[in-house]
Design a protein that fits this description.
74% of the residues lie in helices and 0% in strands. The radius of gyration is 19 Å and the shape is elongated.
Length: 137
């Protein structure tokens, strides 16, 4: 029984994930988290915080917030992705070169994935299901 329940939870998560730009929102949130972590780096590693430190913490926090909004409110994904890419590019100036380029790249790629996601696509058929259909036919 626990195995059946686990399969049900996994299938439910897969369905939930398929109805939203999951990877784009996740990458944007991870990029913001990475930039926030580089803000807490030791002083020998920090290049600059910029603008008295406020924007250095505000922009990555907004990146995390936009990533979560993309995950939980995908209807507004276009606005969130455009705001996300602009905010991510703003971290280049305010937060250690965008978290030493890693957070910057994660944020830009996540925003672009979100912008390109279409909600009305057919669900992708796995290889296993295609093989089963071939065998049955």
């Amino acid at each position: 029984m626990p195995e059946r329940a686990r399969r049900g939870a996994r299938a439910a998560f897969r369905d939930w994930r398929g109805r939203r730009p999951f990877w784009g929102g996740l990458l944007l949130a991870l990029g913001g988290a990475e930039i926030l972590l580089t803000e807490k780096a030791s002083l020998k590693v920090v290049l600059h915080i910029g603008m008295q430190g406020l924007a250095g913490y505000l922009l990555p926090t907004l990146m995390v917030l936009l990533g979560l909004l993309i995950l939980f409110n995908p209807a507004q994904r276009l606005f969130y992705s455009l705001a996300g890419v602009l905010i991510t590019l703003g971290t280049w100036l305010t937060s250690n070169l965008g978290g030493f380029f890693i957070g910057l790249l994660l944020g830009v790629v996540g925003s672009c994935l979100t912008f390109g996601w279409l909600p009305d696509q057919e669900a992708r058929v796995s290889r296993r299901q295609r093989r089963r259909e071939r065998v049955r036919a």
